[in-house]
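Bench notes, afternoon.
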Amino acid sequence: MAKTFGYESTADEVLEGVDLSGKRVLVTGVSAGLGVETARSIVAHGGTVVGTARDLAKARNALSQAGNPAVELVEMDLASLASVRKAADGLLASAKPFDVIIANAGVMACPQGKTKDGFETQFGTNHLGHFVFVNRLVPLLQSGARIVTLSSAGHQISDVNLEDPNFEKTPYQAFTAYGRSKTANILHAVALDDKLKGRGIRATSIHPGGIQTELSRHLTPELIEQMRARISAAATKGGQPFQFKSVPQGSATSVWSGFVGAADAVGGHYCEDCHVCAVNDDATSRIGVRSYALNLAHANDLWRKSEEMVGERFPL
């Protein structure tokens, strides 16, 4: 009988009895929080991990504190397409295939700013950086490979705005920008899955849960109160009080989607608490995934807009 996992499951519990020997996995953002724990759990179960980080010294320190899992580090700043392309080119040059890519890195609710290429910081970092990086690495994926993109329940805050992705026409709001970027993460996975499933490669997106990590470093007291009020209202409606997850619990859905959940079940879908979420367009509810985030035509529109923004085409 298959094991059932849920809200409280940890990455190690999900991977218990799973032998990842021979699996080569790429994890972005291994300098803190979920990235470090995800990498540690994969290595602990026999996998080989290549991890990216903007600050390699910080990553080495974080990995040291996690018990020194054997992780090969690659320098990459998602807020710089030059850095992203350099990192991808280096991996392509090595020609070593990956079995799973976990697009984990990201920023949340930061002050209004721009990436090195002039994109709004959250959309540029969370979506466009990963869009270029992951798409460039597709040649290293073989049949049976998976791509897991970390999104968030924050996608429920806002759909993407293809007419004004950089907030040039509309007033900037930190959580609206975050919501747009997290919806973009889901849509990228939807488009990837559609383009690659014929080759036996599946893509999915996940919400790791609410976790107190460095991701929240930009939150002001006002933004924290906005977040708590929104979550509390939705939780009250759903009948379940909100609780933060631990980092090991937050990493569970990443490894479940990458190694344990059935490929045909997770492919093209959005997962939370180690299960595939149903569509829920109730704007007052935090449960499930919004239909706009799973719309394939919308995903393809975002793909074309993203190619236009980064100046690079990906005819996968």
